[in-house]
Amino acid sequence: MTKQGYQAYGNGCGTAGIKVSSEFDFEDCCTYTHDVCYVTCGMPKSKCESLFGDCMKDYCKKNHPDRLPDCNSNGQMYTMGTTLMGGKYYKEGQDEACDCVPDAEAPARQKEELQSFYKKWQPDQISKADSLYKKYKDNFPRLRMMLNQKYKHSVKVIKSDDDSESPMKLNVQSGSKPEVKHTEL
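Above: the chain's sequence. Below: its structure in token form.
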């Protein structure tokens, strides 16, 4: 279960001093799908990677239909990186965001979590909480993630004010090897 008072967050594309960029703007997928998924309690890492890949494919289809192969190729580089190197960050996110509760207590905590979410982030929609819980009680992590995606203001976005703070930048380019730039510290 999500720790009481915990707010989901995302930091865009990159972590641990590495800023990843591309000619395609995957920032929303990085922040609101991938990062939020990593701090969504009970969401399997493999599902996070799958949803991240789907988000980027949808982005490419909607925004770059004329460059679909290049855009999809860039997206695959992102998912390759998170799949191979994201385990530590996924575990840290789950540890930071989640409390373990006995199975018998989970339904009541889930309902309380849903009510609290709506009270804080979308009070005029609180009447939806009970019906949504009934619909998603067997897949509560997916519901929580979808709420953060729908009500983006519920996600704390952590942005660096100065990109030069990142000691290393990885720029994923179409049809070439990724370009790595080191910043003097």
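The two ends are 40 Å apart (CA to CA).
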